[in-house]
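Hi Y.,

Following your request, here is the sequence exactly as I used it, all 282 residues.
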Amino acid sequence: MLDLRYHVASLSAVFLALVVGILVGVGISGRGFVDKSERRNFENRITALQSQVDQLGAQKSLLAQQGRADGAFAEQTYPALMHRRLEGRRIALIVLGSGAAAGDVQQALTDAGATTAIYRVVKLPVPAPALRKALIGKPGFRTLDNVGHELGQEWLTGGVAPIADRVSPILVQEQRGTIGKPLDGTVIVQAAPVVDAATRQFVAGLFDGLRAGGLPVVGAERTNALPSLVDAWRASQLSTVDDVDMLSGKLAVALLLGGAPGGSFGVKPTAEAALPRIQPAP
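Below is the corresponding structure, written out as tokens. Let me know if you'd prefer a different format.
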């Protein structure tokens, strides 16, 4: 809907520019630079373009009314669709580096009745030398993808967490909630793409570890996120929501965490659909 309104507005601007250009031409013709037949052609074109501008203005007004109606419908149906949809579910919110979308995700979880069981903000880029030093004597954790995988598994399954205990003081800059009970899903928030090789290796392992249990893992970003990380998340086999700052995006996150088939959802060109298929809440 927004894209169509912008398209209409841009066309209106183009037609207005054409009208101005023609008016300038008519003014020149009035000073004798063009003949009368050319002047009549200019005037006819102005009339036709003005008619098209009027039509576009009417379409823009109609789209604005439709947008207001859609907004009212979403605001009134959202609470009913979210009510108790994730009641009792324990969800992890993992922020890689930083991410303005974290607040939107937490609101979605609250609206759906879920608990943010663990909240972790992971330093990016990862301090690779310090991680390797902390894991000296731990066989099988010489590569950062192994470290990320095991950390994801420990966060997901609860219980003893020997790797998390060692690396969290180095790697995690903010945390809430304690590891204890198994989780029911994970949401990833990330502000910027990963650029260095060590961090890419760690993050790939982390995603693998979080997905290993077969539970939903969703990457969520806002509509104004630049650059979008949807392609990178999809390459890591995560479901994605690119409009979590909107009511439809919050609902999409809840639907995916509730077991809807995975995919990419939202309003950007990378989205397969606006929403996953909506099933009645349990």
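The radius of gyration is 27 Å.

Thanks again,
Q.
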